[in-house]
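Predict the 3D structure for this chain.
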Amino acid sequence: MNRMRKAKLGFTLMELLVVIAIIAMLVTVMVPVMLKFMKGRGLSMAGNNIGGFVAFARGEAMNTRQTHVIVCYTEPEEIATSTDSEFKFYAGPGMVIYRINPNPNKQQNPDEEVINYVRQLDFAGQIGGAVDFAPRWKQEAPTGPIENYLPEQVNSAFAGKFKIVVLSDGRLIIPQDKPGYILDSGETKNLKADLVLTDTERYVYIDINSATGAVKRSNVLESDEVTEP
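Done. Predicted structure below.
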């Protein structure tokens, strides 16, 4: 009797084959979904990190009572921590915060320069693959000087790059600023936003509020949902 009861506790070969077949079907369905989710995760994280990055820049500007500038690097480029620094490293694709002091007091602070590196946000290390600025955004983003807010030396140093000025009172000067409502309208699909990020297959649109520094981003959109040449 005991032997018969123990035998009934096991699984038949047919039952095991059915379970294995069900698991194989689930894996076949779920793996592409998970891969798609992980790839889009990089863009989501980049969008969220930009929000924290802008908030940090505003905090630094208000705490130090000095103008800061956020510079977008669309290609890897060697930069230095200050004008005369010998220590250099690569930034981009990504964003870098610089503190601007038009009249550095060399007697009180010998290391103080007009342009001082503060922090960078590197897109390459995002989860799910490399993140970059969208090609069309690179073509259309205003990269000229921001007069009345940045000294000539700063405009010259960052010529050809998209810049956002962070004033000491926390306000942001964003060239050709796009209002946040476009993220909820059909215009989003035409790449009209303050920043547009991509991983070559998907896109995220980002709007930055010039008064509060709040960052709003769209959902991760597939390439067929946008207009990109």
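The chain has one domain: 14-225.
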